[in-house]
Amino acid sequence: MKKFTILESLRGFAAIYVAIGHLIIEKSKLPSYITLFFKFGQEAVIIFFILSGFVIFYSHNKSKDKSIGNYFIKRFRRIYFPLFCAFIVSFVFVNQKFVLKELIGNLLMLQDYANGKPGNIVRPFLGNLPLWSLSYEWVFYLIFPFVFPVIEHNKHRVHIIGIFSLINLIIYILYPNHIYLVLSYFMIWWTGLEMGEYFFGDSSKFQYKTLMSYYVVFLIILSFTSYVYHKTDKNMLIGYYPYLLVRLWVCIYLFGINYLRNFNY
User: Fold this and answer.
1) Tell me: the pLDDT tens digits for 6-42?
2) Among 37, 106, 129, 133, which lies 20 to 30 A Cα-Cα from 43?
3) pLDDT averaged over every residue in the chain
């Protein structure tokens, strides 16, 4: 299908970009003006989150067996198989100290790439930084089968998800904890689900302007937070919290929903 050709192309580009970015930034001695182009890997991962919500909606929509058991078997394979493969690769090729807390934390999907973010629980196991995104995906997968059937036909469902995510963002800013941060990202993942509804479900349910309005609110809150941080630390790097979150939400606002909505199917 043309829809999936375009989506897979976008996902493939994002994956290659992230892989090259890690290789160039960590291993190469190229000039900074070249490596700068590859320093937006987390923005690329955000596109993965949107596509993930899209694919989960499509998979759920066409599935004859919508049981929670069947759903979690599929999702477990999807997440934990690459996790275990990454563990093996890390053991073989990465020369970093083994930390039991990291291993347990990664198995429980609590890892994150810190970047100055407060409330971080554990770093990715053996410094394998791309593993941070799996913890977010797993939480999104956990929430979906319990939330979607309840609000599927609720005309205010975007508001429900938007308010839920905003509350978690505010709590995270005030009382930093990794879990609150992950839950604040749920709005990003849900955007992909709404796109799936637009293309494969009931397009009349798609609330483009409502989604965009919530993105603006997120950006206002994060911009104010960045201003407060800037007043206390004028040397804070743009790749670190809270500027990093501003970057991610700007990416979503400019490229995420606009790009997907304007595919010429």
Assistant:
1) 666 776 777 777 767 666 666 556 666 666 666 777 7
2) 106
3) 84
For residue 71, give both structure tokens: 């759903």
Question: Mind listing the pLDDT tens digit for each residue in 121-159?
Answer: 999 998 888 889 999 999 999 999 999 999 998 999 999
Q: Where are the domains of the chain?
A: 2-261
The answer to whether the CB of 135 falls within 8 A of the CB of 112 is: yes
Other C-beta atoms lying within 10 Å of the C-beta of residue 182: 22
Is the confidence at residue 164, as pLDDT, over 80? yes
Take residue 23 and report the two structure tokens written for it: 């290789």
Alpha-carbon 220 to chain mean position: 20
Structure tokens at 129: 């930084």
Q: Cα torsion for 223, 228, 232, 235, to the nearest 10°? A: 0
* Of the candidates 101, 50, 31, 20, the residue with the CA atom closest to the CA atom of residue 259: 50
Return d(Cα 212, Cα 218) in angstroms, integer: 10
Q: Distance of CA 213 to CAs 173, 209, 253, 261, Å?
A: 20, 6, 10, 15
Element (H, E) at 53: helix 41-62
Rg of the chain over Cα atoms, rounded to whole angstroms, equals: 19
By the 8 A CB rule, do 166 and 221 touch? yes
Residue type, 60: H
